[in-house]
Write a structure and sequence with these properties.
This protein is of the alpha+beta class. The protein has five helices and four strands.
Length: about 150
């Protein structure tokens, strides 16, 4: 295993063990529930918007190390971002983890994700992509308020 992959693995394990923003927001302005029926991951995401900015974000629930780490890293990445910036992060993150196995991802694209780049290797395990994207789709549902609940099977 390369040193970079080992560091990424350690980062994922650290976010699973001590997730950031693992809390319910009592004063949330937006929220949604997300569920992955294939493996049982289930998270609720709360957002507090101040105008067009994500002033605070929290999540609670349970799931595998990939899903919890992804949720933790996501909350750290979007806290303080505008809604547009958060949606752009979602698109960039999603495009990386959805890259076909064998296709090269430019290193600068992974680096532009910051710590989220640690999850780029999930694409090597297609069954885990839904785990890595659940919190992101749940956050997006909270932002758009089109759905109160999302499933990885929809």
């Amino acid at each position: 295993m390369s040193e970079v992959n080992e560091l990424y693995q350690q980062l994922i394990l650290e976010h699973n063990k001590s997730p950031r923003n693992f809390k319910k927001l009592e004063n949330a302005t937006h929220d949604a529930d997300g569920y992955n029926p294939l493996c049982g991951d289930h998270y609720h995401v709360w957002l507090k918007l101040d105008g067009d900015t994500i002033a605070d974000i929290g999540f609670q629930g349970s799931g595998c190390a990939i899903s919890k780490s992804s949720a933790s890293m996501m909350t750290s990445a979007v806290k303080g971002a505008t809604i547009q910036e958060a949606k752009e992060m979602l698109e960039k993150y999603h495009s990386v983890i959805m890259t076909k196995i064998g296709d090269e991802i430019p290193e600068e694209k992974i680096e532009s994700l910051g710590s989220l780049g640690a999850l780029a290797g999930v694409r090597e395990f297609p069954a885990r992509i839904k785990c890595a994207s659940l919190a992101w789709h749940t956050m997006n549902a909270a932002l758009t308020q089109k759905e109160k609940s999302v499933s990885t099977e929809n």
